[in-house]
Specification:
Elements: H1 2-35, H2 49-64, H3 68-75, E1 79-86, E2 97-102, H4 113-122, E3 131-134, H5 149-157, E4 166-168, H6 178-184, E5 187-189, E6 193-199, E7 202-208, H7 220-224, E8 232-236, H8 242-250, E9 255-258, E10 267-268, E11 272-273, E12 287-291, E13 294-298, E14 316-323
Parallel strand pairs: 1-14, 2-3, 3-4, 4-5, 7-8, 8-9, 9-13
Antiparallel strand pairs: 2-14, 6-7, 10-11, 12-13
Helix pairs in contact: 4-5
Length: 329
């Protein structure tokens, strides 16, 4: 009896420790937002002088060679991509699990083209999905209120039949105040935490981490610590930072989903992305990848930011299907 009591006390201390760490990281994010005054200003305002000059220079070059309008058109040509992942050792009850995954919506009050295009693509989805997962960066800019994205996202997703709901994470463009607004809209934002879902008597764990790029507030351990040992573990992260990929592998994650890179947003034929904007090898920056026993997908994303163009980096909405092969085992 005494031993059981001591075990319970130890478990409570661990829970308190994780919760304290989670709150500290959240406070770190809030202080970052206050430091750079992200609640104030217009969405077209740049984070610093370097970003302002970079954006102006790229825009000027593209206009001077007659490619700017072509790039804007490319940014609005969103495709529906279907991706399959095979896991031989998962419960057969998970075979056929379908996930709609969208990252980097970058919705704008000034550039509606990719929102309109995305709406038409989503209307092509006629069959139900089990989960909708959102990978963060819901607005185009860094500054001002982000509340305007909520009705736009609701309008986009409201006609999709989803079994277990909508879950998402915050990106480096997002501000903390939008989390509560998402919750009110029925969209669950996971900030270094996770949720268990029972699917056909099999357990799925959805862990979501906060933004690591620029903000440094992600912690995979907090997002997975409460996951059942026999659960199929999915981590949703805004970016493919290699330190998070390594940490996810150590915590037994099966599938790592992220975005952030936009596939480079501006690339060259044959050569590919000019810059991936993430601390990882290029193999982790676009599309399907594997890292030892873990599989992952880095979407090229839905919208764009800074310069509203794309070249050699097609935007996408992704439907992921989980398969168990061989099925009979």
């Amino acid at each position: 009896m005494e031993e059981e009591k001591n075990t319970n006390i130890h478990q409570k201390e661990e829970i308190d420790e994780f919760e304290i760490k989670r709150r500290k990281l959240w406070e770190k994010r809030v202080q970052f937002e206050k430091k750079f005054h992200l609640y104030e200003g217009d969405e077209l305002k740049k984070i610093n002088l370097f970003e302002y000059l970079k954006t102006k220079t790229i825009t000027l070059i593209l206009r001077s060679v007659g490619l700017y309008n072509r790039g804007q058109l490319n940014a609005s040509k969103i495709s529906l991509r279907k991706v399959k992942f095979v896991f031989p050792d998962i419960p057969k009850e998970l075979h056929g699990l379908k996930i709609l995954f969208i990252a980097d919506l970058h919705l704008s009050q000034y550039y509606p083209s990719w929102f309109i295009s995305g709406m038409s693509v989503i209307q092509q989805i006629k069959t139900p999905v089990d989960l909708i997962l959102l990978g963060g960066d819901y607005r185009f800019g860094y500054f001002g209120s982000e509340d305007f994205v909520i009705p736009m996202i609701k309008e986009m997703l409201e006609k999709i039949e989803v079994k277990y709901g909508i879950y998402g994470v915050l990106g480096n463009h997002d501000i903390s105040s939008v989390k509560e607004k998402f919750q009110e809209a029925g969209i669950h934002i996971l900030v270094n935490e996770g949720v268990e879902i029972n699917h056909n008597r099999a357990k799925i764990w959805i862990g979501g981490v906060d933004a690591q790029h620029k903000i440094g507030c992600a912690d995979v351990s907090l997002a997975t610590v409460n996951a059942p040992g026999n659960a199929f573990k999915i981590i949703v992260s805004h970016s493919p930072e290699f330190e998070l990929i390594e940490e996810s592998l150590l915590w037994g994650v099966h599938l790592y989903l992220c975005g952030h890179t936009h596939g480079g947003q501006i690339g060259l034929p044959i050569i590919g992305p000019i810059h991936i904007n993430a601390k990882c090898k290029r193999k982790f920056a676009i599309g399907k990848w594997e890292y030892q026993d873990m599989q992952g997908y880095t979407t090229t994303g839905f919208g764009v930011t800074d310069v509203p163009v794309r070249f050699c980096a097609e935007p996408e909405i992704v439907i992921i299907e989980i398969l168990k092969i061989p099925f009979h085992i």
